[in-house]
Design goal:
single chain, mainly alpha, Arc Repressor Mutant, subunit A, two-stranded antiparallel sheet, globular, pyridoxal phosphate, transcription, DNA binding
Length: 87
Amino acid sequence: MTRPLHLELDRSAKTPLAEQIHKGIRTAIESGVLAPGARLPSWQDLAAQLGVARGTVRVAYEKLSSAQLIVASRATEPMSPTGPRSQ
């Protein structure tokens, strides 16, 4: 089982929740809080933990995947950070 991911969301902010989730996970990856190969919660689990719609988490994960910060072995399995990008 994956450890809960601690993210703080500001529901009164103008920044969309998906963007806040994306930034929180990106920061955790880039700062080393999430090590390469660490498992992220599934969309469903993180959505339940944060009290947001699954689609909100899906959007955040897809943006992280597009930036090559995370990878998924299958759509239904948790995603794993790849670590900071090599430039």
